[in-house]
Amino acid sequence: MAKCTKKEKLRRVEELADLLVKGLSQRQLINHVRDDWGLSGDQATRYIREARDLVKSDLDDVDRADLLAAKIQMLEQIASDAVAAGRENNAIGAIRLLDELVGLGRG
Fold first, then answer.
1. DSSP-based helix, strand, coil % in the chain, nearest 5
2. How far apart are CA 95 and CA 98, in angstroms?
3. How far apart are CA 98 and CA 107, in angstroms?
C-alpha cells in the first residue's frame, strides 16, 4: 500500500484518538487499522501510540478543577434524568459515582 500523506496520517491518528475516548480496546483498534487502512500490526501499534499521546496532550490543557466541575454537573444531570424517568437504580449509580469522585461519604 502507498504511503499516506502527513495530512491523512493526522486524520487517522485523530480518528483513533476519538475511538480511544469512546472506549475501544487495543485489539479493536488494531483490527480497525488493519481492516480499514490495510496496515500491519506494528504500524497499527505506532498509530495507536500516537493517538494515546494526542489524548494525553488534550488533557494537559484542562484545569483539574474545571474537569471535576464538569463531571459533577454531568452526574447530577444523569441522576436527575434517571429519577424523572423512573429509573431510580440508575440515579443511585450516578450518586455513587459522584460520591467516589468527590468523597461525599467520607467524614
1. 80, 0, 20
2. 5
3. 15
